[in-house]
């Protein structure tokens, strides 16, 4: 049987509230050595923010990262996959939508995140991208 998203995803992604300031997401990214956070409103996902989003949608637009709430810069209703989706299918979806990371949603709840690095590692653990993805972050 082909591997599923569940087999390679990163479980329990970092989340921040929709009304939290951008700086909170940036701090979480730094502390956890990650490049994205899930934005939640109550108990459901309302968006995704990447480190690039912070640069392009906040810093480059001279928004105050201590005052700007996450819901003003996040990608709303991001493309998602299911934990039971086939990796090839998930990879095609990411390619079609030109995204590097997708939240993994099960019964309306975010249970993980799938990145292109996860896909690379699953397909060829000895590839350069897999090696880069497995390396510790350089803070």
* Portion in beta strands: 15-25%
Shape: elongated
- H/E order of the elements? HEEHEEHEHEEHH
Tally of separate domains: 1
Describe the main β-sheet briefly.
4 strands, mixed
Low-confidence stretches: none
Rg to the nearest angstrom? Answer: 15 Å
Annotated CATH architecture: Roll
Helix content: 25-40%
The count of helical stretches stands at 6
State the fourth-level CATH superfamily: CBS-domain
Distance between the termini: 38 Å
| CATH-derived topology | CBS-domain
- Total beta strands: 7
Spatial sequence of strands, sheet with the most strands: 2-3-4-5
Average pLDDT figure: 89
Which structural class fits the helix and strand makeup?
Answer: alpha+beta
State the CATH class: Alpha Beta
